[in-house]
Structure formats: structure tokens, C-alpha cells
Amino acid sequence: MLQEKIANRQLLFMIFLVRATIAIAFLPVLTTGNAGQDAWLATIIMTFTTVALIFLVVGLGIKFPEQTIVEYSQDLLGKYPGKLITLLILWFFLHMAATEVRIYGELLNIAFLPRTPLVFVIGAMVFLAAITVYIGVEVLGRMADLLFPFYIFLIGISILLPLPELVPENFEPVLAGGLTQVMSSALTPTAIGSQVLVVTILLPRVVEPKKGIKTIIVAFTAANLLVLLISIAVIGKLGSVEGAKAVFPFLLTIRALELSEYIERLEIFAVLAWGMGIYISLSVYLYCGAKGLSQWFGLRDYRPLTFPMAIVWVVMAMHSFESIFQIRNFFAPEVFFPYAMTGFLPFILLWVSYVFKKLTKSN
What we know:
This is Spore germination protein. The chain is mainly alpha-helical. It has a single domain (about 10-350), classed as Amino acid/polyamine transporter I (Up-down Bundle), CATH 1.20.1740. About 75% of the residues lie in helices and about 0% in strands. The chain is built from 17 helices and no strands. It has helices at about 10-25, 25-35, 40-60, 70-75, 80-110, 120-135, 135-160, 180-185, 185-190, 200, 210-245, 250-255, 270-295, 305-320, 325-330, 335-340, 345-360. It is globular. The two termini are about 35 Å apart.
């Protein structure tokens, strides 16, 4: 069995990009829906709620530093119950990756490539990710090392450009709808924190898996800070009403800028950064899906599954949603929150089994 390793730093970059990528697309419009001008407060609340999810998932993983969830779930629950619950995790990898690539494909198709078939745009991105995954997770880690500085630079420019045009009155009044609306707006971003499930496959590949909780908390906190800055930029420039109506609010925020008569269409910075993030995100999901499925079937190598899974992902991305508006409805709190939280239910069962086995041994 292949024993590739990545540094904790590379894991941090990968998780940061996975977490932040979807935020650039939809998060401001999702949080402004209920919280209005207080949407930025929802991003602060979600920082604390996602930390709880990290302890639930990664805390169990570091108890089995050399095993993925496919392996230790069978040790804790038995072969068939363990395999059954890991199917839920593998499905999540498939669905989230298909959803994210469809969102980015829709963006390129609507804003830049209206005459290019959507399947070609999506297929090209998935194929590039599949090549990276086939070469190995170490290459994926190096690509995260390479792209992370460029990502931060491009996003930094995209956030700084709207600052001179922010309208402070757009943030008033604070807590006009009460704290309840702010907390309800934090449901979807918290549920998107289910991205942490990829760590259940990646952790055994890390050089120092025992430091996994610290690494993931830093990655999520940094990504949530980025989401906070994006929310402030969107609300300050567009206002809560226009921000909630926009399909891609952050993109619209930057597109509305004109530094001069000759300098416009500055959204290219955000689009390039988003593309880098999507590439890493797709590669992570594809690796985790292929690795997990290979262990589920008892295969020695995940590579033969990489390209067949990539084809399935393209088909899934094309047929899961009819339009970008259906994707937006999917991320509504009443739909996405219970769906995503289902992925954490097996961990409650696994923790109970782990504690029970520990108590049994001690007795």
C-alpha cells in the first residue's frame, strides 16, 4: 500500500482553500438573506460552531492516526456497520465536489464563456484535478504550497479594492432583527463546515497527525476571517438588499468598481483566485473519494478509481441541478443544514463505541 505523506502546513493550506472557495461564491448572499446588514456577525458565530465540529471529527481521527475513517469505523462498529456509515461520508465527497464545480462552471458560463458548453468547462476542471490526484497526494500538497500565496494575493486585492467605496450606513442599524436572525443565518455556513470530513481520509497521510486539531482549527479560523472580510465588503458596497439578491455577490461587488475610465472588469482577480481554490478543492475531494472507496473495496491502490470517479463527478455536476438558482435554493438553511448535519451523526455513534470499548478494556 502506498504511504505518501504531506506536511501539516500543506494540510492547512488545502483545508483553507477547500473552506474558503465556496465562501467566495455564495456565502455573503446566504447570510444576508435573514441577517441583513448583520450578516458579518453570522460569520463570527460560525467560527465557534465549526470548532465544535472539528473536535467531533478530528478528535476521533487522532485516536487512530494511522487509519482512515473507512478503517477505524470497522474496528469500532464491525465490518458491515462500519462500511455502511462510511458510504454516507463518501457520498458527501461526491455531492459537494459536484456542487462546487457546477457553481464555478455556471459562473464562467454566464459571465465569461456564454457560448462554451457547460459540460466542457466542468469536464476540463475535473480532468485537471484527476491528473493531480492520479500522480499522488504529495503532488497535491505541493500544488497547495504553490498556489496558496497567489490565492491570498489575488483575494487580498479583491477585498482591498472596494474599501474606499464602502458605505458605513449600510451596516446600520446593528441587530435590528435581533440575535435570533443572526444565529439562524449562521446555520448554512456552519453546515458547510462539514468540509472537515475530508480530514478523516487525509489525516493518516500527514507527517504529524497528532497535531491535526490545531492545524484544522487554524485553517478554518483563517478561512472564516476571509469570509468575514468578504461579507463586510459585500454589505458595505452593495448593501444587504442587493447583496441578498445577487447570484454571485462578491463578484458583483468587484465588478461594480471602476478605478478610472480605462480600468474596469477587476473581477478577474477574484475569478482567478476562485479557480485556484476550486482546483485544490476538487483534487482534495477526488482524492478522498477515490482513497476511501478503494479501502471500502479492499483495493491496494486508489489510482484505478480516479478517472472513473472523475467521469461520475462530471455527470453528477451536470444533472444534480437544473440551474444556478436551484443550487442557491439547495443551500437554504432549512434544506442544507439538516442534509449536511446528517454526515456528523455517524461520529456520535463512533464516539460512543470508542468510549464503550475503552471502558470495557479498563474494567
